[in-house]
């Protein structure tokens, strides 16, 4: 095939040019995003129920929803948590479930049970989680001094949001911190009493005045008119003119017995930018959008906003496109330095400019054509797929050097240039194909990991496979054609003189060390084998983590005050803390209490707050965060404080809501939470001392109202009347609402803002014969510690503790016995079990990868023994990588693991080519010489080492030097790539030595037993 194609150079060249042009066109249509569009198999249902207790939300709302959702297809797990005024249900599905259909099913089931939910409850929000739901930027909207906040809220909702949503690539715009206007009615109780009226008279007057005749029409001759009641109200003035009538028929204007005015609705949360209250708009991108084109549009829109609305300050924060830019920058750096160092190393070894130029043409050609595969596999350009291309670049240089070196060697042997190109490619073709297949055999099985990790590896595996197969296409077709073009006028004698003096020195040094090692080959082989377990044991000294530590100048502080405070007190405390820092930060933004984001799937509680800080340096961040911790601990000792690096998109995607190890129990008798006093007594005998109370056991102080049923019956007062009166006094009692062109303005009865005991004493309720009695006669109260949350799963309500032990399973038997004695059903749950499952999967996948590697090499070498040589080289390279990671203080993380895969791919390549060359030389010498088999083997090993020395050294050195600049760089991209670089440098340093000396040693002791005649 190579001969056929080389005979038609113009056709081949035109085909490659056509592919490149088509690839450039396709590249312009590929979506560019930070992460692949992955459907996380989770759906979150959020419930906001003002003035409701955790027990009420669990009993009246969440339990019914859970029961209805129990039959969902593919449902793996269900967790619910109800707190004061808020509740959440998190549904986890089997990975691979079609989340579009699951989302529709959940909404349908909630619609089905809407009538059985409390009438004053807003429809529960259903949130589907996707990687595109991670906001790419946040726009801060801060009203200036004296500007009406509700007007700015309307501006954000009706104008800014719509203008941002119209930008190309924007899928959704979310807002937090809005305030809505309502009309409040505050009754004048003395005036009402004097006129013989009650609050009920006021409520009836307003409801009657806001009635609308639905679809009633009258005819007037040939015309038809729709009726509208003239009493319909629009403003507080309209309401104050409404007539209020008592039982005796006395009528007065409502304004004489109540105050009516516009006020902001009571809020459950606030947003602050610095110490100024404002709104935040989060921008989310479409899956098919290009982030690098969308972000400039957002910045441009922000400038328009500043000019159009000078009464509001705007600022853009937390721009996530910096991660993508870092990934693209790393790829550009790899290409640039890869080309420069390849040129330098090739010139150093070969002493001509033509070979580097050929590689300089092949590198971008392979890269551009690879984007065709992206298009056909529907892969976006993202950080994951770009990292796959970066991994493939090292292998691409490797293949090019091997092919060019082999063609040059054939020319030096005296073949004509055409024949040298054909023979040079054919000789290494099977070995290069095997090396690519073995690399993919190590890498591609990782896509079968369950969950998000497997989905992410899919993009990486496709991109690696794309560039490797394209590199083979280029190496087998384009490179020999270019070589023919550049070297057609060079004779074999001229090529023989082109080896540099430097390579001559390296070759002599290699031969001397080779002879020393092979004089004591037994001892040398044992030393290599002993090094394997020692190097692998180094992994036990390495710290293990997910992503590498990135130098971040931002921090996130999460606070749970752990006290029964309102959202206003939460806000005031946070502002006081921020002011105490004296503005020693570049930016700060806070979300206080319940968040209004549609896509927010985290904890929502009035007592919680989170603050994002951006600092000038990492040292400044460390000092200020320590200062903040001290301030909080000294002033608010009850508060739970969590200070961390601000999570980027990767962190948010990989973060887990699961505790490490949780012991759960359910009361089998009552199906309810165990009472506080009894539970405290039981926990004193819990088998483990070091534990933390789970959410279902956390307590908060609360006031418990109890009704005196005997007195109420005596005075003719119903419990429903008392509950309604309490709602009016302490809650937000909605009378009716005004609807105008999609805008809804609620009319609410405003309760008194004073001590609740005083309110109970001064508020009356009507009993028998119209007599009034103070509410305090029928209500008595206690202060009690009460459970802060009610937690439940598919099996019902549970309570739990979190264990902090290194080996938590050792207590499982004792805990089970503790639970059975108390009629508790005990179960164990947490990230510990997920991690064990992942490790089990990784071990299985690794075994499959090694088997695939063995089968491919067995087919390549036609031997069951020789593949073991290649497999033995792998732990040597891994050990070398571990040693460098340890010496540089680098952890074993996702990026260093990817580096191991890259390094193993190059190592396998070198070992395969060397063994293939030895096999071919043994066959040639056995046919053309009368040497005994041992002498043939010695000669083949020696000459194969000399033949493959140059490509092995060049591929290793070019790869190491191309990656080396990352070690000395700074910034987000360098921090991410540095562990990968250390893995590759460590592995290739040992791996190169392994390919040069261990492979021939192992071949002598293992592979040499295979007869050459058998292989023929």
UniProtKB/TrEMBL annotation:
TM helices/strands, residue ranges: 12-30, 331-350, 357-377, 383-404, 436-458, 464-487, 522-542, 839-857, 869-888, 894-913, 952-974, 980-1006
Keyword Membrane: yes
One Gene Ontology molecular-function label: xenobiotic transmembrane transporter activity
Lineage: superkingdom: Bacteria
Pfam family of the protein (one): ACR_tran
InterPro entries: AcrB_DN_DC_subdom (IPR027463), Acrflvin-R (IPR001036)
Keyword Transmembrane applies: yes
Sorted UniProt keywords: Membrane, Transmembrane, Transmembrane helix
GO cellular component, one term: plasma membrane
Protein name according to UniProt: Cation/multidrug efflux pump
């Amino acid at each position: 095939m190579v001969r056929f194609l080389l005979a038609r150079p113009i056709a081949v060249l035109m085909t490659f040019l056509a592919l490149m042009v088509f690839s450039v066109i396709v590249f312009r249509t590929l979506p560019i995003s930070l992460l692949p569009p992955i459907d996380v198999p989770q759906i979150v249902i959020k419930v906001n129920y003002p003035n409701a207790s955790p027990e009420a939300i669990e009993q009246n709302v969440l339990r019914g929803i859970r029961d209805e959702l129990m039959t969902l297809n593919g449902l793996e797990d269900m967790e619910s948590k109800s707190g004061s005024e808020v509740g959440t249900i998190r549904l986890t599905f089997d990975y691979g479930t079609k989340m579009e259909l699951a989302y529709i099913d959940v909404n349908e089931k909630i619609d089905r049970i809407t009538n059985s939910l409390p009438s004053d409850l807003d429809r529960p929000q259903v949130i589907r989680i996707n990687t595109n739901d991670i906001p790419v930027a946040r726009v801060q909207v801060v009203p200036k001094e004296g500007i009406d906040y509700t007007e700015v809220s309307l501006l954000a909702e009706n104008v800014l949001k719509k203008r941002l949503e119209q930008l190309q690539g924007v899928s959704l715009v979310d807002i937090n911190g809005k305030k809505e206007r309502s009309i409040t009615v505050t009754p004048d109780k003395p005036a009402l009493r004097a006129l013989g009226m009650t609050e009920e008279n006021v409520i009836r007057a307003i409801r009657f005045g806001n009635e609308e005749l639905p679809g009633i029409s009258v005819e007037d001759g040939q015309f038809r008119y729709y009726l509208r009641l003239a009493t319909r109200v629009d403003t507080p003035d309209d309401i104050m003119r409404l007539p209020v009538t008592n039982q005796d028929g006395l009528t007065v204007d409502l304004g004489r017995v109540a105050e009516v005015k516009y006020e902001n609705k009571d809020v459950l949360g606030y947003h602050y930018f610095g110490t100024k209250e404002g709104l935040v708009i989060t921008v989310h991108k479409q899956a098919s959008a290009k982030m690098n084109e969308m972000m400039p549009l957002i910045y441009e829109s922000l400038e328009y906003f500043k000019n159009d609305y000078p009464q509001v300050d705007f600022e853009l924060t937390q721009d996530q496109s910096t991660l993508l830019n870092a990934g693209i920058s790393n790829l550009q750096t790899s290409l640039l330095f890869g080309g420069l160092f390849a040129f330098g190393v090739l010139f150093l070894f070969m002493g001509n400019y033509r070979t580097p130029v050929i590689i300089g043409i092949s590198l971008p050609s392979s890269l551009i054509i690879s984007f065709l595969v992206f298009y056909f596999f529907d892969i976006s350009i993202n950080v994951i797929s770009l990292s796959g291309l970066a991994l493939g670049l090292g292998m691409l240089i490797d293949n090019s050097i091997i092919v060019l070196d082999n063609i040059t060697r054939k020319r030096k042997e005296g073949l004509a240039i055409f024949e040298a190109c054909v023979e040079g490619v054919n000789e290494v073709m099977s070995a290069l194909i095997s090396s690519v297949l073995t690399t993919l055999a190590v890498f591609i099985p990782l896509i079968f990991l369950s969950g998000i990790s497997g989905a992410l590896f899919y993009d990486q595996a496709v991109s690696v496979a794309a560039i490797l197969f394209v590199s083979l296409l280029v190496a087998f077709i384009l490179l020999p054609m270019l070589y023919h073009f550049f070297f057609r006028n060079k004779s074999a004698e001229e090529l023989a003189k082109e080896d540099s003096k430097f390579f001559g020195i390296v070759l002599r040094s290699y031969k001397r060390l080779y002879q020393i090692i092979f004089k004591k080959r037994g001892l040398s082989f044992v030393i290599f084998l002993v090094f394997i377990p020692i190097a692998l044991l180094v992994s036990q000294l390495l710290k293990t983590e997910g992503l590498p530590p990135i130098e971040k100048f931002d921090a996130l502080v999460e606070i749970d005050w752990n006290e029964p405070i309102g959202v206003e007190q939460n806000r005031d405390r946070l502002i006081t803390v921020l002011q105490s820092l004296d503005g020693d930060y570049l930016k700060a933004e806070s979300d206080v209490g319940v968040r209004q984001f549609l896509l927010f799937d985290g904890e929502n509680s009035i007592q919680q707050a989170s603050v994002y800080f951006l600092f000038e340096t990492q040292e400044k961040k460390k000092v200020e965060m320590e200062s903040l911790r001290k301030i909080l601990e000294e002033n608010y000792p009850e508060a739970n404080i969590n200070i961390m690096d601000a999570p980027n998109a990767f962190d948010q995607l990989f973060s887990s809501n699961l505790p490490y190890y949780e012991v759960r129990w359910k009361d089998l008798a009552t199906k309810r939470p165990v009472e506080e006093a009894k539970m405290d007594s039981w926990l004193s005998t819990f088998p483990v001392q070091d534990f933390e109370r789970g959410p279902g056991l956390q307590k908060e102080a609360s006031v418990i109202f109890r009704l005196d049923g005997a007195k109420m019956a005596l005075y003719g007062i119903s419990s429903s009347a008392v509950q309604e009166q309490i709602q009016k006094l302490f809650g937000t009692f909605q009378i009716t609402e005004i609807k105008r062109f999609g805008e809804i303005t609620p009319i609410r009865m405003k309760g008194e803002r004073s001590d609740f005991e005083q309110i109970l004493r001064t508020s009356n309720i009507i009993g028998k014969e119209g007599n009034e009695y103070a509410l305090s006669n029928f209500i008595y109260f206690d202060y009690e510690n009460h459970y802060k949350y009610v937690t439940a799963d598919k099996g019902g309500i549970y309570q739990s503790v979190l264990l902090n032990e290194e080996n938590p399973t050792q207590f499982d038997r004792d805990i089970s016995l503790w639970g059975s004695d108390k009629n508790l059903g005990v179960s164990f749950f947490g990230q510990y079990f997920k991690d064990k499952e992942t490790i089990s999967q990784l071990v299985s996948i690794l075994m499959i990868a090694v088997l695939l590697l063995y089968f491919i090499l067995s087919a390549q070498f036609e031997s069951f023994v020789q593949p073991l040589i290649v497999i033995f080289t792998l732990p040597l390279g891994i050990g070398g990588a571990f040693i460098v990671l340890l010496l540089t203080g680098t952890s074993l993380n996702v990026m260093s693991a990817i580096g191991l895969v890259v390094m193993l791919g190059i190592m396998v390549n070198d070992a395969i080519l060397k063994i293939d060359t030895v096999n071919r030389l043994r066959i040639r010498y056995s046919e053309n010489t009368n040497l005994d088999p041992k002498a043939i083997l010695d000669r083949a090993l020696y000459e194969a080492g000399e033949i493959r020395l140059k490509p092995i050294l060049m591929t290793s050195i070019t790869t190491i030097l191309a990656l080396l600049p990352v070690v000395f760089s700074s910034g987000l991209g360098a921090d991410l790539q540095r562990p990968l670089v250390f893995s590759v440098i460590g592995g290739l340093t040992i791996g190169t030595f392994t390919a040069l000396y261990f492979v021939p040693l192992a071949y002598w002791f293992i592979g040499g037993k295979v007869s050459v005649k058998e292989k023929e």
